[in-house]
Amino acid sequence: MTILVTNWSTVWLMTGLGIGTVFVILIVLFCVLSVFSSVTRKTRDKVLTGVEAVKNVVEKEEIAENITNAAIATAVYLYMQGRHDEESGIITIHHPDHPLWHAELNQHL
User: Fold this and answer.
1) Cα–Cα distance between 26 and 30 in angstroms, integer?
2) Distance of alpha carbon 6 from alpha carbon 13, whole angstroms
3) How far apart are CA 97 and CA 46, in angstroms?
């Protein structure tokens, strides 16, 4: 009997408003993503242009050879000065007695 008491105009109005709200949000989301896409495309093009410029500089043999020699010389210098890391090769893992959520729930322990 509740079907007879239902105000169908209100039901259809609420349904239309709900569906309309979803479509409006989807349209706004599409617009925002389109703007971000165009911004990232422009930024990516600028970055690629910069990468190509760096690649052109690095392709020159003299600069690449000098950089390699400088890196090797720096590594040998640091090794001879004793500034290199000496690893023990031992991994130590400490497990707490109780997880953090347990410690917060039972602070009296």
Assistant:
1) 6
2) 13
3) 53
In this structure, what token pair is assigned to residue 64? 């690449």
Q: Residue 100 pLDDT > 80, yes or no? A: no
Determine contact, residues 43/50, Cβ cutoff 8 Å: no
Q: What is the pTM of this model?
A: 0.39
H or E, element range at 5 = helix 2-5
Q: What residue spans of 6-107 are helical by DSSP H?
A: 8-58, 61-80, 100-105
Please, what's the b/e burial string for 65-92 (b: 16 or more CB within 10 A of its CB; e: otherwise)? eeeeeeeeeeeeeeeeeeeeeeeeeeee
pLDDT digits (tens, 9 = 90+) for 76-88: 888 777 766 667 7
Termini Cα distance of the chain: 59
Structure tokens at 4: 């007879």
Q: Identify the residue with better confidence: 99 or 69.
A: 69
Band of residue 104 on the pLDDT scale cut at 50, 70, 90: low
